[in-house]
Structures are given as C-alpha cells and as structure tokens.
Amino acid sequence: MKNEVVFLSGQDVYADTFTTSDVIAQYGDSSIHAVSQLIRNYHADLEEFGVLAFQMRKPQKGSTGGRPRKVWHLNEEQTMLLLTYMDNTEPIRKFKKALVHQFGLMKRNLYEKQVQFELGKEFSKELHQAIAESPYLDEHHHLYGNINKLIYQQALGVSTKALRQQRHIPKNEPITHYLDSNEAGAVKRVKEQTRTLLGMHFSYQQIKDALQVQGIVYQITLPAKQLMKEGH
User: Fold this and answer.
1) pLDDT tens digit string along 33-52?
2) Do 34 and 28 contact (CB within 8 A), yes or no?
3) I need a surface site. Which of 27, 89, 169, 185 has the fewest CB within 10 A?
4) With b meaning 16 or more CB within 10 Å and e meaning fewer, what string describes 139-166?
5) Angle, vertex CA 151, rays to CA 148 and CA 157, nearest 5
6) How far apart are CA 194 and CA 196, in angstroms?
7) Rounded to the nearest 5°, which phi and psi values hold at 20?
8) Residue ranges of E strands in the chain
9) Taking the complete model, does pTM exceed 0.70, yes or no?
10) pLDDT value, residue 7
C-alpha cells in the first residue's frame, strides 16, 4: 500500500501522528458509518490511550443535503486497538502492515527533527552569547535580528519572513520547530560558522561577506506565489 495513511497534526517538530476514521473505513473494507459507530461504542476504551480528537467535515460542494460530520483522528495505539475490534480480513491485515510501516517511519523522521532541534538550542545559546560579547553590538542595535535573518538566508536560501508565511509559523514560535533534519542541520552549520566569526570580532558586514563565499548550504524552494511576494 503506497497511499498515505498516517498524517501529522502540524508541521512543528513536536507534532503528533494520527490516522483518521475515513482512512480506516477506506482501507479496512468498511463504511464510514460503521467505523464511526465502532468508535462511539468503544469510546471509553480508546480514550485510555489519549483524547479522541476529531475534525468537523462539511458536505462536498454540489452535494444535496447532508450535515457536517465528525472525522475522528486516532493515534497509533487507538488505531491498533480499534482494528482488533474489526474482522481480521485480508484488507485489514494489509492495512495493519501499512500502518505499522508508516507510523514507524513518521516517528523516526520526527525523532530526527527533535534531535536536531535540541542540538540547535544549545548552539543558539552560544550564538546569542557571542553576539552579546560582540564589540559591534552598541553601534549595530539590530545585530541580533540581522544575524538571525542572515543565518537563514545563507542556510536555506530564503528569508525568515517568507519561511514563516509559507509554513504558517506563529510569530511567538521559533522557526526551528518547523524544520526537517536536513534544514535544521544546515541552520546549525551556519550558526556554528557565525559564532566562530563573531569570536574573531568580525563585523556584521564581514560575517555576511564570509558566509556568502560558500553559497547557500541547503536551498529550499518556496511556492511560486510565495517567491513573487518575497520579491516585492
């Protein structure tokens, strides 16, 4: 089964993995109504493994009648428990194998992102200390902000503003929550280089010139519309 059956609750590094009642119905050889009824019947059992979340889905455009309905979001434990309450048919067995594979893969990817994030936090502390000790801090009042923007531009080839817009990152959350392991590794590398240059008492312009010599570390691509906005 190559179709996606496991999803993330968000793009941040500590997102949760889940599947839906619709996916279970589709690949479990059952109806949406039957799966939803099963969830309601065993609601208490399922909630022993976490809060049962759901999303209200409106009827498709053009359809006649109908009301919004609940699409249940189940974590890995809830999903596997629910499947034990269903007939162990061939589609169910095939679906279970796909779930085990995709839940495992998704969790490994999240773990890699989390490791990179935690390592990045330590480098960020050291970088902030290096900026605080820079002899150019007094004459360059925006040194913190400009250094941060420069790091992302040189690491990923995009501005922090465009990246926040593209990934819908709230202003009060760090961008590092929303990077994959390759992106986080690139940012970490440029932070290390910047910290070293600050320790050598380079000015902002000298740091910028030195970083630009190596080019972009890990270029990411923004959607065409986002690139047009960034160009204005």
Assistant:
1) 999 999 999 999 999 999 99
2) no
3) 89
4) ebeebeeebbebbbbbbbbbebebbeeb
5) 125
6) 5
7) -120, 160
8) 7-8, 17-20, 53-57, 69-74
9) no
10) 95
